[in-house]
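Query form — protein DUF4925 domain-containing protein

QUESTION: What is the three-dimensional structure of this chain?
INPUT:
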Amino acid sequence: MKKNLFYLFALICSMSLFTACSDDDDNSWQKLPQGEIVASNVSLQLNGQNTTGTVSFNALNLESAAVGLKDVIDGYSDVTVDVKMEKQTDGSFKLSGSKDITTKPVRTRSAAFLTVNVDGNITLDGKLSLNLSASGPGLYIGTYSAKTLTLSYGGNLLTGKTVVFDATNGDNVSLLLKDVIPGESETVLTGVSLNEDGFTGTATTTNATVEYSGNRENKVLTLNLNVIMNNPSGWVGTYGLGNYSVGNLEAFGPEFSIVATSSLYVDWQGIEDSTAPLYAALLRGLGGMLLPQVLKDVTFVKDGNITAQYSSNAITMDPNNIMGMLSGIVPSAEDVSALIPSEGWLQSPKNLAFWYEKEGQLYLKLNILGIIETAMGADASALSDVILTILQSEPSTIKGLLNTMLGVDFSGVTDETFATLLTWVKEGIPMDVKSTNGHTYVYLNKEALSPLLKSYKTGNVDTWGEEETTMDIVQIWTAIQKAGIIPEEYAAAGFLVAVVGGYYNMSTEFNLGLDLTK
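ANSWER: The structure tokens for DUF4925 domain-containing protein are given below.
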């Protein structure tokens, strides 16, 4: 009996020893390819998408290996992941491994965080299939614009902008929006939270509350923004145009008619000359006839957009009306109403004009690149960098470029006025808002108009030996008229431009804008 137990024990030990020796002698892993894998033998996916790059493989023993990834993950030119190997029944080996990377991608040269997971299979004849997944800020960090940025603002495409994705580590991620939120040249969204699907969040900025979401795929950042602007003055809403009405200018007699109100708001005070109210009424009348033909209403949207219903039909204007209004004969409200289109109104696109409130003023911010792209289509994309460069140039340089490109000679316009216009383009046009008796007046005040309307000496002497004076509004009008931009039938209005400038310097108040009703 004892002898049988001894034989049984010896048999078990022998089998165990044989099995152990069998495992130790499995050198099949040594037949696996070493070094760089031929591209035709590599099947490579990153986050579910086919991708390219160079893959190397080095088996260390039956259970472990190292997978090298060159130019596979954008921003990380060389990544090595230690993987575990599990031999399969068909002789291939299943691979799995993970690596945390704590350096920023090379494209930005700053710290970041990235996790790379490797799953795959390799055969003895050198066939390698890898399925990689990468997550973390390292995939996003960089500067995005033009073709690498798809930016949606309120559900509509917003072009010509730049977004910077940055991080100091995996838990401190931020988005920098350049000139995206109205009134904010730079907006930093901090604490951006990333997951495998992208990122979402809400932030409160200087001028707005911003909901954002997005992802990055094929090196393109998609960013969706839903914005609600601060609206302390209650300006959000749709406004129609003020009514056209006729009154009398008693200083010229009870039968002398003038335009008393219209869609063009003119508040001109402090001039003793009795003809000044006549010219103010003439301005009001011209605006009251022209504006309703092209503009039906204006909407200040809660996301900061400004939209309008407009007409693209030709404007009807009888130049004789100008002389008639100077003689006390003005078109009736019925005459003006007949000029207004009854149909064919168009809705303006979003993301071309924006509003924001600052220190009680309403700023009108134009998206110059967006306007040009809307007008020119795909041809405008190549001009984006040129336009941005122009806007950063000195006034004298810009005047020269406009002369070369458009044939408009603005050399007579002062640099001060051009600097003001550039500020309006970059920061927005500052407008006052006044609400009374159901009307909302949105207008430029005297101070804002000063660079355009104030008189200055030219350095020349006229035929009577007097020093000549001019105004930049006259210089601008003359330049665009000579370039053929102003239709010939409207050229006669040039005298009114000169008159306004002449009286401007004697006025205490000069407000010019829109008369709106809500």
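ADDITIONAL NOTE: The radius of gyration is 36 Å.
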